[in-house]
Amino acid sequence: MRATMTKTPYEETYFSGTWADELHAGETVATSAWSVTKGTGLTLGTAEMSGREPQLESPLVTVWVLQGGNDGTTYTISNRITTSLGRKLEGAFYLKVST
Hints:
This protein is mainly β. The protein has one domain (4-97): Immunoglobulins (Immunoglobulin-like, Sandwich). It contains no helices and eight strands. Strands 1-8-7-3 form a four-stranded mixed beta sheet, with no helix packed on it. Strands 2, 4, 5 and 6 form a four-stranded antiparallel beta sheet that branches. The radius of gyration is 14 Å and the shape is elongated.
């Protein structure tokens, strides 16, 4: 998942990643949680935000990044999952905010 994506402070958009390469045959993503682990001023969508909640369609996971972010800042967005076999995995991508 360690790609670098970009957005402007104005944009509200989503980003998706796949866990397919990490899962064993027959294993699925059971739970998925997103967080900003480096940087402040960026808001992620939550389950309470209709139409902007994180999505889980194993092995694909999707997070909404809402307005915000400081111009010139690169954030680390982390995704922690639990699989159907009880394994706990963590991945991340970088999000650069630029006007």
